[in-house]
Amino acid sequence: MADEKAPESKPSEKNNRDEVALELMKFVAVTTGYGKGSPAAGFGGKSAARTPEEYADSLLELFQRCREAVAQPVKGGEAA
C-alpha cells in the first residue's frame, strides 16, 4: 500500500499563470541582463555595482510585471 500514489491533480489556473510568468521573467532576465546594473554596450555613464538586495528587488519587480502581463486577456480572439 505504500507504493500507491495519489492521482495527480491539474495545477490551478493561477499556479499555471505564475509558472508562465516565472519562465518569462527568467527569459527576460537572462537575455537582457535585467537588474544587473551594467550599462548597455556603447553607452557610458556611471557603472555602479548593485548590491544583492537591489538585484533581488529588481527581479521581484520584473516577476510582478510578468505576472501582470500573463494575467491580461488576449486581445483579438484566439491565438493561432
Characteristic terms for this protein:
mainly alpha; single chain; 2 helices; elongated; 80 residues
Model description:
The protein is elongated and about 45 Å long. The protein has a domain at 15-31 and 50-71. By secondary structure, the chain is mostly helical. The chain has helices at 13-32, 52-71. Helix 1 packs across helix 2 (52-71). It is built from 2 helices and no strands. The model has no long low-confidence stretch (mean pLDDT 77).
Name the shape in a single word: elongated
Q: How many individual helices? A: 2
Main sheet characteristics: none
Distance between the termini: 46 Å
Q: Total number of β-strand segments? A: 0
Rg computed from alpha carbons, rounded to a whole number of angstroms: 19 Å
Quickly give the structural class. Answer: mainly alpha
Question: Which stretches are poorly predicted, pLDDT < 50 over at least 5 residues?
Answer: none
N-to-C series of helices and strands? HH
Helical content (DSSP H or I, runs of 4+): 40-55%
Mean of pLDDT: 77
Strand content: under 5%
